């Protein structure tokens, strides 16, 4: 995008940016610090890490978090391992969300090759929120079922 804006400045639009924590303050239904945020999805062309940093005060209220991981934007300078660690400290367990109900846990299962940048959906559940525990159990069950699928096991044709 930055390259395009340099080459085609007439097609660029400056937009005002703000942290999610500041944006929430102005929303009556979310301003109450006890109000749950059931679902939060962040897909902003490579700036997910920064956006999530700007929502740190409210992440404890989020039950389910979805964000994308890829090669664009700030992901080239940021570490998925660091983000998953920070989210774990807030109670989140994160998974690669694959096709056909496949899920692979990232939290506590981190592999160095995860730092290779490719497009992926990451789904996280907040285990510190009692109301989200059934979802956490279902996501972990899906992960274990994924591991047991014959088509995904080594040596199976």
- How are strands sequenced across the largest beta sheet? 1-2-5-3-4
The major sheet is characterized as: 5 strands, mixed
Average of the residue pLDDT scores: 83
In whole angstroms, the N-to-C terminal distance is 42 Å
- The poorly predicted ranges are none
Q: How helical, in percent, are the residues? A: 25-40%
Elements, N to C (H/E):
HHHEHEHEEEH
Shape label: globular
Pairing-aware structural class of the strands and helices?
alpha+beta
**How many beta strands in the DSSP annotation?**
5
- Radius of gyration over all CA atoms, rounded: 18 Å
Assembly type of the shown chains?
A: single chain
β-strand amount: 15-25%
Count of helical regions: 6
What does this structure look like?
The chain is an alpha+beta fold. Helices cover 30% and strands 19% of the residues. The longest helix has 15 residues. It is built from six helices and five strands. It has a five-stranded mixed β-sheet with strand order 1-2-5-3-4, sandwiched between helices.
Summarize the entry for a quick read.
This protein is α+β, with helices and mostly antiparallel strands.
